[in-house]
Design goal:
Blueprint: E1 11-13, E2 20-22, E3 42-43, H1 47-55
Antiparallel strand pairs: 1-2, 1-3
Length: 66
């Protein structure tokens, strides 16, 4: 039913503060809220997440993990 096909594992991430929480299988990330700022979460690596990252100025936001 409209799933993003990203599987049961992974993380939901806050597009505002970058806080990551473990994805709960069967619960879309967008139905979850950030415990820090109350913003709806997005699935890490999803097209929505990639679009958010593309809009951020370089040198701000989440780290690349390097």
């Amino acid at each position: 039913m409209g799933g993003g096909g990203l599987g049961a594992a992974g993380f939901c991430i806050c597009p505002k503060c970058g806080r990551r929480t473990a994805h709960q299988p069967g619960v879309p990330c967008v139905q979850e809220r950030c415990s820090e700022c109350g913003v709806a979460l997005v699935r890490e690596g999803s097209p929505h997440h990639q679009a958010i990252l593309a809009r951020q100025p370089k040198g701000t936001g989440e780290s690349s993990g390097d």
